[in-house]
Amino acid sequence: MQKISTVRVAFASFIGTAIEFYDFYIYAMASALVIGSVFFPASDPDIQTLNAFLTFGIAFIARPLGAIVFGHFGDIVGRKATLAASLLLMGVSTLLIGVLPGYDQLGTTAAILLCILRFGQGLGLGGEWGGAALLATEYAPAGKRGWFGMFPQLGPSIGFLLATLSFLLLSLCLSDEVFKLWGWRLPFIASAVLVVVGLYVRFKLTETPAFAAALAQHRTHKAPMKHLVCGHLSAVVLGALAMTVCYNLFYTATVFCLSYGTKTLNIPRTDFLMMLCVAVLFMALATPISAALSDRFGRRPVLLTACLLAVLTGFALHPLMASGSVVQVTVFLSIALLLMGASFAPMGAFLPEQFPVAVRYTGAGLSYQLGGIMGASTAPFVSQLLVDKGGLVWVGYYVSAMAALSFAAVLAMRETHQSNFSQVA
Question: What is the maximal distance between C-alpha atoms in the chain?
Fold first, then answer.
């Protein structure tokens, strides 16, 4: 029975993050391809792109707030109900984006409503990751937290692959005119079906043993955020800085490079989406390997190695991307996403291990989402500005700087793979 339970838990933590990140990524791709022209007035294409990237960043501002709000209830009420609520919020916001009229119909109101719905996406995702990571790790057998913490980390790569394949299929089946008119909306509308599946799986779960024990002992806090700030603020800050490299690698490769590759290098959209499909396989491959290594050798050695390699990867961005070669660009995308997977996988256990049970949902989730603000929210926007002002080489320097920041943060954090994970206070 226990074996069936752990398989169900692993699948539930995986499927939820896969669905939520699918929803999140289809917006990222739409922002690189069509959001600017649909929701903003006709102007210079670069200005439309920058506006689209700004709406992309709004969700990252909302994500820490979502981590606080959902973390509060997750640390008081429980992991199960909170996770279902976060998934529902994300699903409703995504569906409404898919049916929202554009600038031609609503004028500036369209952009305002888009920003509100994008904020809703961010709130939902802000509550998702922390709960999914806790669901996996608080059920994990001894010595296997890194491996079980890998399942919510595997969700984003699968969600991204589904998002990329959906846009690729539309690009192959529809003309550019039809795609921009209504075709891009289909992945948003289809997400409603995935959300129903995810909710069904989530409602079949029971509460995690660690949190159930905390409830039984009356060891939860009425104000988890207060206890987190008073006793674990440094862990939140360092965890956020450690996450920066993951976010920056991913969104540079998948959003900025998609925009730059299709608009500046003139690589056909279908070709570039195929290149991303290849690259994300390396991310999916690196995720379980890195998680297993973190259980064997510790979280810090694996993360420090990935960060160091990411620093070097930044210097490879300019020569590989500027070549315009499909092969060389694919090589860069594959390296970036492989290292994203390698640095991302151990975080499923590493961040929760920094906090005791009573503030773990809030602490792990907030660290993760604050890292998104620093590493991802402005990554496409800053990269576009750097290209416009100084050239592609500066985007590479930017990637290297973010990776170096994460290296320093991990170096300052404690090793946790053999820590007491049942500590309550």
Answer: 62
* DSSP annotation string for 386-405: HHHHT-HHHHHHHHHHHHHH
Structure tokens at 217: 């002992």
Which tokens sit at 169? Answer: 């299929």
Question: Residue 143 region, left (φ>0) first, then alpha (ψ -120 to 50), else beta?
Answer: left
CATH number at 67 reads 1.20.1250.20
Q: Are 344 and 403 in contact (CB under 8 A)?
A: no
Nearest to 120 by CA among 150, 90, 86: 90
Helix (H) or strand (E) holding 259: helix 257-263
Q: How far is CA 347 from CA 91, 354, 383, in A?
A: 25, 10, 25
Domain-located, residue 247: yes
> What is the pTM assigned to this prediction?
0.83
User: Cβ atoms within 10 A of the Cβ of 225, count?
Assistant: 18
Is there a contact between 25 and 160 (Cβ–Cβ < 8 Å)? Answer: yes
Which residue intervals of 298-325 are DSSP H helices? 299-322
Q: What pLDDT, in 10s, does the model give residues 278-307? A: 999 999 899 999 999 999 999 999 999 999
Of 398, 381, 408, 377, nearest to 317 (Cα)?
A: 398
**Residues ≥6 apart with Cβ < 8 Å to 377:** 56, 57, 59, 60, 61
- Residue 420 lies inside a defined structural domain of this protein: no
Instruction: For residue 360, give both structure tokens.
Output: 């773990």
pLDDT in tens, 390-423: 889 999 999 999 999 999 999 999 998 877 766 5
CA-to-CA distance for 332 and 342, rounded, in angstroms?
15
Distance of alpha carbon 33 from alpha carbon 258, whole angstroms: 8
| Domain interval for residue 54 | 2-412
Tokens of 134: 């806790």
Give the count of domains, the chain: 1
Token pair for residue 338?
A: 């492989």
The C-alpha atoms of residue 197 and residue 266 are separated, in whole angstroms, by: 38
